[in-house]
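Design review, sub-item: ligand-bound model
Attendees: FS, YL, KQ
YL presented the inputs for the phosphoenolpyruvate complex:
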Amino acid sequence: MQLSPDQWGFPANDKPWIISGPCGAESAEQVMATALGVKASGAHAIRAGIWKPRTRPGSFEGMGEQALAWLREAGDASGLPVMVEVASAKHVEAALKNNINFIWLGARTTVNPFLVQEIADSLSGVDVPVFIKNPVNPDLALWIGAIERIERSGTNKIAAIHRGFSSYENSVYRNKPNWEIPIELKRKMPSIAMFCDPSHICGSPQLLGSVSQLALDLQFDGLMIESHCNPSEALSDKNQQLTPAELKVLIDSLNIRKAEFDCPVELSRLQDLRDVIDEIDFDLLNKMAERMNIARKIGQYKFLNNVAIYQSQRWAEIIESRTAVGEDKGLSPEFILKLYNMIHEESILQQTSQVKSEEEVPLKNLTKE
Ligand code: PEP
Ligand code: MN
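KQ shared the predicted structure:
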């Protein structure tokens, strides 16, 4: 059982809890100016990366231990708790030595059980709140596993941060939100407070407002938003950081859901589920468009090789395997058959359209010659 963040530093009556600050600490001045700025904008805690895990070598990798003192000073000046990302026992030790108030595990650490265990071991007998970001890949078990490892160190101040999941597919997001994953985590571990990091989900300020609002509508407890006193000069993640003034505009624009219906709990849960359904439907439509695209390619390929479009054996295999997988996931065979009949019908249409248009090309060419 975890203590709620209002028992370890966040104000009970001022939700959503806002954590803000730079992606990376760059100088004492930058940390101080950003911290005082976001405090004035309504933040409740200050974040800054000191050791930055970067995708490619040669990028800004953080200012290291010296920056812990800058963060501590900014915490003292603003009166807000300060937090850093840790990726090893050595980082934990340095952060605690510099009286950093909270720590967080980044997505590239949560993904690695060896590192998580090392950090968990270093936390035994230590009373510091720990935030755990989701792993980079959409793997709920890995996220839960990291939480459990930290929990077993005896820590009872754990919160989760949803920062989206990397994907090879094109997407409007830098990291796809897959909202069903944090929601399922919350269902399985209801005492874990859930924050959303819309900055790393969006990768730019454009969608920040709508993603933040959706997180609140999904009953997230707080937001972690990157900000910088001068974003265009930032040494990392410069495209997604807000100025403190922009942070205030964002916070002021958030619609905090009020209990305004007859049965607010039920109605709000219904809306949460509908929001997730919308996301899933857009995913379904994207996938369906991808599937039809491939079907058209198959149509061309069959035409080139002079092979019939309808392949009864393949169709029988599809129905059999999809029914088995669907049943395993609680979907009825009738539903699977109906669904795949529709998909198959459309797929054949799409394939046929390719054959027709391909057939016209050589004929036209022939007449030209
Ligand atoms: C960060 O918070 O700056 C960061 C590196 O985030 P993530 O671990 O989510 O990539
Ligand atoms: Mn960042």
